[in-house]
Amino acid sequence: QVQLVQSETEVKKPGSSLKVSCKTSGDTFSSFGLNWVRQAPGQGLEWLGGIIPVFGTTNYAQKFQGRITITTDESTNTVFMELRSLRSEDTAFYYCAREEFNSWPRFDSWGQGTLVTVSS
Amino acid sequence: DIQMTQSPSSLSASVGDRVTITCRASQNIVNYVNWYQHKPGTAPRLLIYAASTLQSGVPSRFSGSGSGTDFTLTISSLQPEDLATYYCQQSYNTFTFGPGTTVDIK
After folding, report:
1. Could you tell me if A95 lies within 8 Å of chain B, comparing CB atoms?
2. For B9, nearest residue in chain A (alpha carbons)
3. Under 8 Å CB-to-CB from A108, ≥6 apart: which residues?
4. Are strands A10-12 and A114-118 parallel, antiparallel or unpaired?
5. Are B57 and A58 spatial neighbours (Cβ–Cβ below 8 Å)?
6. pLDDT in tens for each of the 106 residues of chain B?
7. Of B45, B49, B96, Cβ closest to residue A47
8. CA A116 to each of CA A6, A14, A42, A103, B21: distance values in angstroms, whole numbers, following the listed order
């Protein structure tokens, strides 16, 4: 059973930065990509970006370019998503999702979600 | 960027009904479409990938079809547990989700 375990709920001030983590197994870390998807209240799913840990390559949605950085920590098989210059519209559930990069591109396993509230 | 649209935005159907959701891409994406089910308070679940391939463990009442720019997700016999929002996703060039279709049980 694939497990992606995300960090806990966060409350942030406008203008600050957010860093959400997603811990996975060694097998997943070495053989899959990890992506970040969010859902704001009353809105649909939105892809933010992804990383292939074994190559260190990243890909970001144009909307978030310059404001997002996705990184990894190999020692703990953890992927991080940092989002800067937060505004109220960034209030959302943030999910990490696994992608098998040498197969059909799809998100076959997901983390439990991290609720982020941006409020003054 | 590739844009995805879905119709209808919501629907209400009875248990046992056949339900069809359509998804359209802004350009030819061959068969690079995936479908997800999302229930409130849970993580999204992959149902269909490559337009028509059923993900392991997904009930056979779910099916997908289409190619190019037009795609459909069909639930052959709606069940109470299918109450959810359904999203198409293009994976031809990075990823983009459609706006979602909320399925309600009458």
Report:
1. yes
2. A44
3. A2, A98, A99, A100, B46, B49, B55
4. parallel
5. no
6. 999 999 999 999 999 999 999 999 999 999 999 999 999 889 999 999 999 999 999 999 999 999 999 999 999 999 999 999 999 999 999 999 999 999 999 9
7. B96
8. 12, 12, 15, 32, 31
